[in-house]
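Q: Sequence in, structure out?
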Amino acid sequence: MATHEAVDTPVPTPAGTPRQRGLLPLLLVANSAMIALYMGVGSVLLPTQIAAVAPDDKVAVLGLIGGISAIFATAFNPIAGALSDRSGRRNPWILGGALASLACLAFLGSVSTALLVGIGWCLIQATMNVYQAAVTAIVPDRIPVVRRGTASALVGLGLPIGGTVGVLVASQTVAHLRTGYLVFGAIVAGAALLLTGFCRDVPRTGPAADAPARPKRAQLAVFLSALAHHDFRWAFIGRALMVLGYFSVVGYQLYILDDHIALPAGLAPPAAMAVLTPVSMVAMALSTVLGGLLSDRWNRRKVFVGVSAALAGLVMVVPVVSRTWTGMLVFSALNGLAFGCFMAVDTALVTLVLPRAEDAARDMGVLNIANAGPQIIAPFVASAVVTALGGYTPLFLVGGALSLIGALAILPIRSVR
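A: Exactly. Output:
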């Protein structure tokens, strides 16, 4: 009963600003567009382009490009977050990042060598993480603590919605890569224009906005200071392990369908992904909403995060024991359930262990190192495992083990139940 009363009682936003109508739907659109680009380009168009320019070395080249580009994501997200904190505004960074990404996608669609493909994808990772840092900071900026689970669940629907749209669009444009890249650039730019046009920026005040300039070494120390906080550090570790396990496998899904799974006659790998992705994303949407709402109702976060991470690890066994189309369908559904609940509730958990509200974008950017950092390692790990251990079965087992360890990393968190 107390939980219901707490949820229904009006609570001011963290910055003390009035709530803006349509904020959450616009954030959902912005996140969906971002995920559509990451999934459609990263999982379908980019591997297809690499297979065309380097057919004999596609696994190694994809691993190299994926790893190097993730360095750009790791660097640009927290830096852009800190700069948007200091500027006191989000909208210029959202719009600027989106328009720059559109230009970089146009460049990527016009190149035909592995080197230029790698440069193009690195630039897209950089510009999209400028966009992502500012969008991500809006929840801790403006959403009351007692509604963080619900807000994170709604915004988290961007993962299944964007993932489905992204793979479907990519599967339809895979024969015309330049057009596909431009479509994704237009989707992100349109979402940024909607969010920045209909949701006015609220200037932020306080220590982050007004702080004097510090020496660069001091800035780096302050920038990483959130990791000194016990609960934030364990949330960071859990997220990093889960993401490493997930992307070690998902980043190679197109090649897995081509080289590991026995597909029905006439079903090409891009078309198979266009079937698997909606299955996974519907399951993800269901668990995202239920996980977020139930974690608010019961005021529990850790159990949802830990159980979903453990499930994500266990389901990696399915494509090992059943290298069939049916096995992949089952895997996609269960993996979607696990990952959707994890991302929704873990995002809410993280906003509750941020050390300082006024440094929200900076610290969420530091947390994004746990998203992007493992993606630096994952392509190299996956490529090495597939090459050295002889196929994709060991890759599934390694990915599952990492997710299970990530589930255990949630246990030491103290301040959130």
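Residues 21-408 form a domain with the Growth Hormone; Chain: A; fold (CATH 1.20.1250.20).
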